[in-house]
Amino acid sequence: MLKKALLTAAATTFVATAAGAADLPRRAAPPPVFTPVPVFTWTGFYAGLESAYTFTDRQRITTAGVFPGNATNVALGRRPAAVTTSQDGIANIGGTAGYNYQFTPGSGIVVGIANSIDWTDITKNRFVLGAPNVAGGPPNASQFRQSLDWLGTLTGRVGYAFDRVLVYGTGGLAYGNVFHDANFYTPGGALQFAGRYDDFKTGYAYGGGIEFALPTDSFLNTFAVGRYLGIKYDAITIKAEYIHYDLGTQNVVVNAIPGVGAGAYVSRFRTEGNIVRAGFNYKFGGF
Membrane-spanning regions, if any (predicted)? Predict the structure, then answer.
């Protein structure tokens, strides 16, 4: 009887243990961990270097006589009433800095502000021979010189980013240092009238461009000098842009040389042109 009771108890314990084990959770491998890939954004500060090609198309210089005798010389073509000059040149070096804000990372609208300064150093001389003087005498020579030493633009920009490609339009303030010079000579080559202007001018600028952010694994990053100088940046971008600038007009009084000429003229110079920039920027923050 005792033996039968012991067997019954053992069987009951075995059944209970098996049932409890069936209720335990199954052992399963943990789910894989996925690290999200960062979405590129143009938001952040940036700064970089650039080179530029500057060119002008028929900048106009007009001249008027201040006194009746001078006005007559202009009317008769002895002094040029209007001439045009064209200039072009490659800027040696330039720089830019600014800030962008992108509303939605990845693809979306980008707004920003940029300040760029380029050493343009373009100069044009223009010599003009006037109409013959009284009784068929030799003509007078007139010389104009026009220079743009450097050009800066402080502009806002609005664009659209297609991930790492940004297309934008820009517009705002243009400023720079201009030089205007007018010299009028006698038929014998003596300086008869002279005037000049050398100062800071402001105006406006507008244009557009395209910028591309290099992928972090691009071999072009190996050419980034900043990485070897310890500069901490998020990305390197390369850009190309076109800007039209207009610094307005400037009157230059061309006064007579005492004992050689009499009276005065006023020559009005216009400074207007185009600049094509190409360069790279270091982008900081926002990745």
Answer: none
